[in-house]
Amino acid sequence: MLFQNALIENAAAATCIRVENGRFTAIGPELTPHPGEEVVDLQNKLVLPPFIESHVHLDTCLTAGDPVWNMSGTLFEGIECWSKRKEKLSKQDIKDRVNRAVRMYAAHGVQHIRTHVDVTDPSLVAMETLVELREELRDLVDIQVVAFPQEGILSYPNGKQLMTDAVKMGADVVGAIPHFEFTREYSVESLNFALWLAAENDKLVDVHCDEIDDEASRGLETVATRALELGLYDKVTASHTTAMHSYNNAYVVRLMRLLKMSKINFVSNPLVNTHLQGRMDTYPKRRGVTRVKELTAEGINVSFGHDDIFDPWYPMGTGNLRDVVLMGLHVCQMMGYQEIMDSYKFITTNAAKTLYLGEKYGIEVGRPASFVVMDAENWYNALNTNAVALASYKNGKKIAEGTPGCRKVLF
Ligand code: FE2
User: Fold this and answer.
1) 401 C-alpha to center of ligand 1: Å?
2) Which residues lie at CB < 5 A from ion ligand 1?
3) Burial class, 90, CB count within 10 angstroms (exposed 0-12 / middle 13-18 / buried 19+)
């Protein structure tokens, strides 16, 4: 199959893309169709590698208002709402909701999802279900499953064993939640355990790290130190790191050296953290997002995630990662022209590094022919107009398509 007139990743000039047996076999300005080859004219539209959701909780998605709405919008009322909803949790319930959510994502050009799954549950039903869904949905999306200890590893009964069991069940990634542990000692020990567990089992790491406005929350330095000492480096990701927003600058300057040496990735969740953080502040009210601009300037890899989709903690979301990028650029003050043009990388190439996709990802000859066609000529306009994903191809097969929405002024 030959795709003509593609503007790949904000390129000024159109190019052609040949796909055979599910892989890119040629990319160049002038490719001539083979006899009988199917030709698709992309009409000078933007072509990007597929979008990647690098941080979401699929086990809680699409439950907002069921059985009760979060009236204050706070994290704590969200936890109360979830404890009521949790009573109804079953394998079928999770499968129904995840199937719907994945299709919402797919319609917006998302083909990879890293989902955190709560394992502070003796039944581990959500983990078992997501491991099954990873197989069932593989033609539509590649799912990575994180064993996520929502209520702590040391601070939850049998927490270490549940984490170990989740890894045996097939978790791809080991999680942790140091700021939620009862004590600072537990916090450090939980990270020592999580990174050791990952190293022993050749797994990736993604820590809910310092998701709190407490400037004394310093899980990040332990994550980075263990990543360095164990040689895990970029297999390790620190998600949220909202406390870093509140660290003093002298500490951050010292910390940056370690972060660069450790090569760890960061995931920021600008929609959910601007909504949930800063709730104890009067005014000035903190934005609650980590230092994306400064980390990026230091060459440290940062991607963006949605975190929650229509659940007790975040009552919005359609699976459109454009919303995440738009919020991120605003709150991180990254609205310079080139920053806007490059911002698709937060949900594509940067996220691919976080998910450790390597040569399974990217528009290059020899790699899987997975890409998205947007109804715009570059990312700036796609972002600004909330452009539709016209087509999403995964391994050479079209898995989703969209048509531009229509609004008319009548006079
Ligand atoms: Fe999260």
Assistant:
1) 29
2) 307
3) exposed
Residue type, 322: R
Residue 233 in contact with residue 262, Cβ under 8 Å? yes
Residue 393, SS3 per DSSP: strand
Percentages helix, strand, coil for the chain (3-state, rounded to 5) are 40, 20, 40
Nearest Cα residue to 235 out of 102, 353, 114, 398: 353
CB of 354 closer than 8 Å to CB of 237: yes
Cα–Cα distance measured from residue 60 to residue 101, given in angstroms and rounded to the nearest whole number: 10
Cα distance between residue 260 and residue 406, in whole Å: 47
Q: Which amino acid is at 14?
A: A
Judged on CB neighbours under 10 Å (0-12, 13-18, 19+), 406 is exposed
Distance in Å, CA 208 to ligand 1 centroid:
6
Q: Identify the bridge partners of residue 18 per DSSP, sorted by sequence position.
A: 2, 26
Q: Which residues are catalytic?
A: 211
d(CA 119, CA 124): 6
pLDDT in tens, the chain (411 residues): 999 999 999 999 999 999 999 999 999 999 999 999 999 999 999 999 999 999 999 999 999 999 999 999 998 899 899 989 988 899 999 999 999 999 999 999 999 999 999 999 999 999 999 999 999 999 999 999 999 999 999 999 999 999 999 999 999 999 999 999 999 999 999 999 999 999 999 999 999 999 999 999 999 999 999 999 999 999 999 999 999 999 999 999 999 999 999 999 999 999 999 999 999 999 999 999 999 999 999 999 999 999 999 999 999 999 999 999 999 999 999 999 999 999 999 999 999 999 999 999 999 999 999 999 999 999 999 999 999 999 999 999 999 999 998 889 999
From ligand 1's centre to the CA of 142, what distance in Å? 19
In angstroms, the CA 229 to CA 353 distance is 20
Give which of 340, 332, 370 is closest to 352, Cα–Cα. 370
* CA proximity to 38, closest of 10, 59, 19: 19
